[in-house]
Write a structure and sequence with these properties.
Shape of chain B: flat
Strand order of the largest sheet of chain A: 1-2-3-6-5-4
Number of strands of chain B: 28
Number of domains of chain A: 4
Oligomer: heterodimer
CATH architecture of the largest domain in chain A: Alpha-Beta Barrel
Strand content of chain A: 25-35%
Shape of chain A: flat
Structural class of chain A: alpha+beta
CATH topology of the largest domain in chain B: Thrombin, subunit H
Radius of gyration of chain B: 26 Å
Number of helices of chain B: 11
Structural class of chain B: alpha+beta
Number of helices of chain A: 11
Largest sheet of chain A: 6 strands, antiparallel, barrel
Distance between the termini of chain A: 42 Å
CATH architecture of the largest domain in chain B: Beta Barrel
Number of strands of chain A: 28
Radius of gyration of chain A: 26 Å
Distance between the termini of chain B: 24 Å
CATH topology of the largest domain in chain A: N-terminal domain of MutM-like DNA repair proteins
CATH class of the largest domain in chain B: Mainly Beta
CATH class of the largest domain in chain A: Alpha Beta
Helix content of chain B: 10-25%
């Protein structure tokens, strides 16, 4: 019944008016708790915010992941209806900034019209942005044209980049998660822009290939993240390089520079391979492919549209011979260390007033450490293969001063090499190493530092004192 | 190509000395003061540093002016930074017109001291050399000498407020420093100034902080060491032990190590190929005493002249290079004594040299690819906060170089690309560490030049440690276009080794 109605509306309405869109739009009020990586045992700071969402088929509401990240309590309300309805996150994809919400009571959806998705809008074509940006409480519409279609970093994770469409319609705080419409169909989800002092009339929306992929990924009830080739390549413009690699002067092919250990291509692709085709599509010497009518896009767009467990077929030139390689795709875990994480609890171990924490983007953001060695481990974690030796670097994130650690102040933010003779490769290793019965706990640090030595009887003595004084409610958390 | 803007940091850091409260005329009856006039010279040095981003050019010339002290042997003592990269040095007497050109007889950037000599020795006739006063110590009064435009001496008396081991401007070497407090005034000719006491020289002022009215003075022991080395035939300079250490104040750590008596420091790193490493000092040793002097938990010994001073003063200033030095250590719960021969490490052999001493930087240009050896001079081109601004991988390589194998050699980098038809597709490459050229491992720019002379199959193949890992140039095309490249980018030569 619902579906019929849905098709009916869109069939009849081509130039959709704001009043109709109003039936699909929801205003989202989110109360979230942002974990504090400086006091990781605390529940975090309560923050409230508002964004936009829209009803899509299947009694679901689509919005941005950043509207509902770390959410503890969500309400949605319809245009012209003051009642807040309690909602919850059904699926969230932090790597492409999308989320799906469900509403507790189905009655919410009566009178709403789910929106349908279109394709990638043409450059210079007109689009309208709907939402609840700052400046008022009612529905707002802004209009503009499609300025650019390109890969962009999705700032929510800060690491992932996907296709994004730049439009010149105003996108302001509160617009996030709102639909961008053209000819009655959703052609994108408004999600990010620049502050006015950086650039003007530059807003970005998540285009439908990314949205479609997300919807397809969650069909099995869970979100599996993007997959990646986990390799780098270099364009092949230079005539000498082409000749040296045995390539014709035909503007085709890129050369593989690095293949990251544990990534999808590890063991299949080799550095120095020349990539000629991906899934049958010719690769230009700048690494682009003609995947659809909108002009060339980076070859990774093929992988962007795939899922965990899918494969990609590469045609390569290796040592002068053509080869066909099949790369089974999965998500490369080490990269996530360098992305903002949400809906995770900070992990830590407090021992003798020293707070051990794993290094990830959230930690780095909160502490902004000055330690050169720590910064190196973080910056080059994947590139230099540090991830092969450890799951995550562990550092002394903070120190709760107490007589037991009064000489340890200089070791703040120092990366830990081993504890009680056990090499530290993750925060779990820290907890395990301290469980060893010893007289002296010896914490060896990376680089030219002396070890920290804590006498176990003094640590035990200090334990209740430190917990009480600093309001440490839990001595460790190893779960995300 | 992304050439960051340069900042004249060094100059800003140096003294922005100092105007006079009251001009104190050379008081009559003070014979020492009258004599002083005949012992000091105004020195003007026109300096021109190399541009490490374009190592074949020099930056704009700049002028530094200071006051030097005449010492025995017809030599004039100044700080090295006054005459760093000097093109022309001119001397002028305080009270008589006439300039004479001077040459640098000796310069040591470790201790920031240099000796100048006028090309015409007759210029110094009638002048009286200052002797060195080695007795100055903490709490003593001393006088900084400036020269007014009219030739009158302006003397500001202050006090030595502390004696410590401090950083000198050029190298990572801590030498003895007098912290000196005096109400110095802004005046010309004050980049470097002599400090006198009892009519003798007791230091050379090298830094001045006008807000706090504090200055740093190179003290007599450092000057005396420098002069003794200068008089000793081959100049060797200041030795280094080559250890990094940590304080041993933490009682838990002391109990863990089994240290029963007070004192001692913990060795956290021994530089490869250093005096200490050759002498058998290891990471994890506790140094209890150096040259018979017991060390406290922070590494200080009790100096008969200056009180508590960091032990490095013993090894680098009291000892001369080549001297044996007893180092008493505690290892595996046993005390033992090592005999360490103190040596001056060759900065030029470090993977990333600390300071080139104004020598022309080496470079090789190959078909538009510019290769250099990584150095602190290069990183400093990113300005005062180069540690944040410079390419981070290079900063890390510089910072962690003591952990590299002793045979690492120099770190050779592709600093930038001068675009040409040969380098199409490589324009964006910069600051990449070169691992091999034509299959040969690269440990110096000379290696690179030699390897580039043997292209394989008509290609120059360059391998990097980072992406893009490998690039190729057409070796014949490179050869044929050399003249054009030099013309286009104004290169005087394709290499300087």
């Amino acid at each position: 019944m619902f579906r019929i109605l849905f098709f009916g509306i869109l069939f009849f309405v081509t130039g959709v008016q704001a009043s109709r869109i109003g039936e699909s739009l929801v205003r989202i009020e989110a109360t979230s708790m942002e974990p504090n990586y400086n006091t990781p045992w605390n529940p975090g700071d309560v923050i409230s915010g508002a964004g936009t969402g829209f009803v899509i088929p299947g009694k679901r509401i689509m919005t941005n992941a950043h509207v509902v990240g770390n959410a503890r309590f969500l309400t949605v309300s319809k245009e012209g209806d003051p009642q807040p309805w309690i909602a919850r996150v059904a699926h969230v994809a932090h790597d492409c900034d999308l989320a799906l919400l469900e509403v507790e009571r189905e009655e919410f959806f009566s009178g709403t019209s789910p929106l349908e998705f279109g394709g990638i809008p043409a450059i210079e074509s007109m689009v309208s942005v709907y939402g609840y940006p700052i400046g008022g409480t009612r529905l707002s519409v802004t209009r503009g044209i499609v300025s650019r279609i390109d890969f962009q970093t999705y700032t929510h994770s800060g690491l992932d980049s996907h296709l994004a469409v730049q439009i010149d319609a105003a996108i302001n705080p509160g617009n996030s998660g709102g639909p961008v419409m053209q000819a009655g169909k959703v052609v994108g989800v408004a999600f990010q822009g620049f502050r006015g002092d950086v650039a003007q009339n530059v807003g970005y929306m998540i285009p439908t290939p990314v949205v479609d992929r997300f919807l397809k990924d969650v069909e099995d009830g869970r979100y599996d993240r993007y997959v990646d080739l986990a390799l780098t390549y270099e364009s092949l413009f230079n005539p000498a390089a082409r000749k040296a690699l045995g390539l014709a002067d035909d503007n085709r092919g890129v050369v593989v520079s690095s293949v990251y250990a544990t990534g999808s291509s590890d063991g299949v692709v080799e550095p120095g391979d020349v990539l000629l085709k991906i899934d049958g599509l010719d690769i230009s010497s700048d690494g682009t492919i003609p995947i659809d009518a909108n002009g060339p896009v980076p070859l990774t767009e093929v992988v962007e549209r795939k899922f965990k467990g899918d494969s990609v077929v590469l045609e390569v030139l290796r040592g002068g011979k053509r080869k066909t390689l099949v790369v089974p795709l999965h998500s490369p875990w080490p990269f996530t260390l360098q992305a903002s994480a949400y809906d995770e609890k900070p992990r830590f171990v407090v021992f003798g007033g020293l707070v051990f924490q794993p290094v990830d983007w959230n930690f780095m953001e909160a502490h902004d450490p000055d330690n050169q060695r720590l910064n190196y481990l973080f910056d080059y974690f994947v590139e230099d293969g540090i991830h092969e030796a450890m799951k995550e670097p562990v550092v002394i994130g903070s120190i709760l001063p107490d007589p037991v650690n009064s000489y340890a102040g200089e070791f703040l933010h120092s990366p830990v090499e081993s504890i009680n003779g056990e090499r530290i490769r993750s925060i779990e290793d820290v907890a395990a190493a301290f469980a060893k019965p010893v007289d002296y706990h010896v914490i060896s640090l990376l680089g030219d530092q002396r070890p920290i030595v804590l006498e176990s009887n003094l640590v035990e003595e200090a334990r209740p004192r430190i917990l009480e004084r600093y309001g440490v409610t839990s001595e460790q958390n190893l779960e995300k | 190509m992304n050439i960051p803007r340069l900042f004249p940091t060094l100059i800003a850091m140096m003294i922005a000395a100092v105007p006079a409260v009251a001009i104190e005329p050379a008081v009559s009856g003070d014979s020492a003061a009258n004599g002083l006039r005949h012992s000091i010279l105004r020195i003007s040095s026109t300096n021109q540093a190399y541009d490490f981003f374009q190592p074949w050019v020099k930056k704009e010339p700049e002028n530094r002016r200071g006051v030097g002290a005449l010492i025995e042997g017809g030599r004039i003592l100044v700080t090295a930074d006054l005459i760093e990269n000097a093109n022309l040095i001119e001397l002028e007497k305080a009270d008589a017109p006439g300039k004479v050109t001077a040459a640098i007889e000796l310069v040591d950037f470790d201790c920031n001291l240099a000796l100048l000599r006028p090309l015409d020795p007759a210029f110094l006739e009638g002048m009286i050399p200052l002797r060195l006063d080695a007795t100055a110590a903490n709490g003593d009064e001393a006088t900084v000498v400036q020269v007014e435009p009219n030739g009158e001496l302006a003397k500001t008396t202050g006090r030595i407020t502390s004696v410590t081991i401090g950083g000198y401007p050029f190298m990572n070497l801590g030498l003895l420093v007098f912290k000196f407090s005096a109400p110095l005034q802004q005046r010309d000719w004050s980049f470097t100034l002599p400090v006198v006491r009892n009519g003798a020289l007791c230091g050379v002022l090298m830094r001045y902080d006008s807000r706090n009215q504090t200055s740093e003075v190179i003290p007599p022991p450092v000057i005396a060491h420098f002069l003794k080395e200068a008089d000793g035939g081959t100049y060797r300079g200041f030795a280094r032990l080559g250890v990094s250490f940590s304080s041993l104040r933490d009682p838990q750590f002391r109990r863990y190590l089994g240290l029963e008596n007070a004192g001692g420091i913990y060795v956290t790193q021994v530089a490869p190929d250093s005096s200490a490493s050759k002498g058998g000092v290891r990471k994890g040793d506790v140094i209890l005493a150096v040259d018979g002097m017991e060390l406290d938990e922070d590494g200080n010994y009790n100096d008969p002249d200056f009180g508590k001073i960091l032990f490095s003063h013993l090894t680098n200033t009291r000892k001369h290079p080549g001297d044996e030095c007893d180092v008493r250590i505690f290892r595996d719960r046993k005390a033992m004594t090592l005999s360490v021969r103190t040596e001056v490490p060759d900065d030029g052999k470090r993977p990333s040299a600390t300071y080139s001493g104004g020598k022309p930087p080496k470079y090789v240009v190959l078909g538009g690819l510019v290769f250099l050896e990584l150095s602190r001079d290069y990183l400093r081109e990113w300005g005062g906060n180069w540690r944040e601004k410079a390419p981070q991988r290079l900063v890390y390589l510089d910072a962690f170089q003591d952990e590299m194998p002793a045979d690492r050699g120099r770190i050779v980098i592709l600093s930038q690309v001068l675009p040409s038809p040969r380098t199409i597709g490589y324009e964006h490459l910069e600051n990449l560490v070169v691992s091999r050229v034509n299959g040969r491992e690269i440990k110096s720019l000379e290696d690179l030049a030699a390897a580039a002379g043997q292209p394989g199959n008509g290609f120059q193949r360059i391998d990097f440690e980072e992406d893009p890992k490998t690039i190729f140039l057409d070796s014949q095309a490179v050869q044929d276009s050399n003249a054009e490249l030099m013309e286009q980018y104004g290169l005087p030569a394709l290499q300087r080794l």
